[in-house]
Design brief:
The chain is α/β, with parallel strands linked by helices and about 950 residues long. The chain is built from 37 helices and 17 strands.
Amino acid sequence: MDELDRLRRRFGAVLLPLLWLHAPVMALAALAVGRPALPAALASAAMAALVHLSWAYQRSEPATRYLSAIALIGQPALLVYLLAGHPWQMDMHMYFFAALALLIGWCDWRVVVVAAVAVALHHLMLNFVVPAAVFPSGADLNRVWLHAAIVAFQTAVLVWLANRLVQSFARIGAMSAEIMRTNETLELRVAARTREAEAANMAKSMFLANMSHEIRTPMNAILGFSHLVLRTELTPKQHDFLLKIKTASGTLLGLINDILDFSKIEAGKLSLEAAPFNLRQSLDGIIGIAAERAEEKGIGLRVRIDPAVPQQLLGDSLRLGQVILNLLTNAVKFTDRGEVTLSIGSRPGPEDGLLLEVAVTDTGIGLTEEERARLFRPFTQADSSTTRRFGGTGLGLAISRQLVEMMGGRIEVDSRPGQGSRFHFTVQLHAVAELAAPEPLPLEELQRLRILVVDDNPASREVLQAIFAGWSVPVDLAASAAEGLSALETRAAQGEPYDLVLLDWKMPGMDGIEAARRIREDGRFGASPAVMLVSAHGRQEVLAEAQTAGIAAFLVKPVDPGMIQDVIQSLFSSRVRAQPSPVAARTEASRKVAAALRGNRVLLAEDNEINREVAVELLGDAGLHVEIAENGRVALEKVLAAEGRFAAVLMDVQMPEMDGIEATLAIRHRFNAEQLPIIAMTAHAYAQEKQRCLDAGMNDHIAKPVDPALLVAALDRWLKPSAAAQAPVMPAVAPVAQDGLPDTLPPFDLAAALNRLNGKRALLRKLIVDFGMRFAGAVTELRRAFGRDEWQEARRIAHTLRGVAGSLEIRDVAEAARLLEDAAQARRSEGVEALLVRLEQAMEPALAAARGLASPAAQAAAAESADMAALQPIIAELRGLLQRRSLRARKVLEALEAAFGAGSSELGPLKEAVAVLDFNRAIGLLDGLACSPAVTEELS
């Protein structure tokens, strides 16, 4: 029921009593003029009764409305008749107009028209039928017409008003209906929006989790193989380079963690670490990054660290460096000329702490007061034009402020438009005792050094001269390499050769590398001085050449006095450090589980071949026997078949067929967490994924890239001693010298691939042969998947091919596979055929090389004769490993292959079975090997 109907019903409920009220009024009027009261009352009541009866059955329907109009007009007509000859008779005509106006309450123009017609008929009837009842002098048609005109005018007005009322109610009804519909759907829409928001949040979480997995997988290989190679025999330079690679990879991993944990920053749940760090060493990489950008723009970058600032501090160096790097890069970005200065000081802080005061000053565009007010808001820059001109999201300063406040400090900015800016902040840290280090070079020893500075930039020469002047150390200056060589020759002729030469790299005429090479090779300069290269350019661009030029150290401008002093200390307290420091040696020492736990058997569930290789090496070095499962389904089968033989399971999460979560849930139906520890060893490091692993029943979580120390600590925590733990762990089978791998094998870059595999030639040969077997039909599979729009399958094949090709250094194949993976990811079919042709062309020489490597002709030179008795121990060991389904069987098979001659046709099926991890078939083939006539004949 709408509002108009409700109004009509309310009006009808008022009109009915009004009609009934006319009956006693009629009786009184009749008595007043001397007429019978009963007939008048009955006539009035009869009209009211008719309306009431219609109301009872039809309520406010049109019939009731029309009948009420006639009855209401009939009441004044009855009064006119009763008062015939009375002075008030003519006044009763006014009642007609009142009754007509009253009917507007029905909001129906037709009711008004019916009432107007009833009035007209009433007057005509009285005028022509009983004129004496109204007009004493007889009919008066003119007066009837006058009344009719008045009624017609009133009717027109009432009809217009009734229509307007109905239209208004219609609009109100439409709006009300719309509001009702909106209200009815509001909850649904809110629920829908909530679901959308939850889905978006889930999508973001899954994206971060997947990105974490994709990034951490190659990071695991980098850190894992760096760790493994650092335990091998290396030259000091190789050890230093690898140690730096591992350190840089660890820093990159920390930054990746920052990005992936951004949701923690949004939620205010980010936790800070408290670990000792060397401030100047932490700043080295940061200054190097900022210096390169400053050099590109042609602006200066200066660093001033108060000598009173302690070397060793306790706090979160990563977060502190993140803030400083953000401020430095912003300063360089918004400065077109002049310089940027980083100043660091300290003062006592609360609770025996230390307040580190950091300031970054630039001569850039500056900021207005309004811009400063909104500068630290998320996704905000000074104005909209800066985003277009300089780029960036405006998020860095907001994060920096939050990090500074979490470290107990406050960040502020002082700036004026066109006059540069000064960002300064304080953080609460603690000074810690210095780590063990060589005795510092006494000042008097430093002052005895003869030092030459060669730099074409006058400002740089002045800065270096001022640094040494602060220690009362005189230095000689040269403006070019030629001038520096002349000074070296002169001092050598005088019998006072230089001890240290600081060379700029980029100089006109002769650069620093060439000058260093001449210093080392030319005998006129006497005993070769130590050469330190100082440059504003990045390390990577110059390090390769610097090694061959005999450069002892490298510093990135702007240099800090503390950095120079550290380098001089390392050069002159012990002129050549051939071995790494004891701390580094201890850090890279082989880590093993507790003695009582060694020999335990663990199951590794991992689908990625490279990750399997790294994990097997780490676990083997830790003193454990390792068996592998390439997915969760195989892991479940092995656990159930082993009946408690495994001491622990190391479970990846993202695997084909059955993932780690599903496999863990299934294992927990048979073994509880106390009986069989399950440790998630996965690149899924996002907090939500970690909790999902624990909720599924896993005991612990180790993020890839795997830190060997954390892995061993987790194993020590969860493993239990067992009888099997007393069995010694078999060492890895050393690769044989004659491995059948040529020196070159285009298009494989064997040198680079061997670096990835720590020089294991036999393993590389096997991987190349496996590549030829596994990916011979890869292009056909990809073409079929793209043709059927099976985008996920195409992406999986291309991704796998890309990873393996990258590991084997087949760069053309890896690049073509990457392009196809991108096309599958974007569900883009345009241009795919051209990419497939490109991949096919890149694959042909690679597959041909792999087939050639596997052929008997290629292996003939490597074949050695051996008698069966000498092979029995290898076969027995291999059989035991196959029975235990151990990945180490592949290494023992390599030794067996070398003894047989890799071209033996008898070994082909066995190699194929082991390659696809069909251990039962491999055992059968191995058992038949000894009694094979072909083998006996070949060995004889």
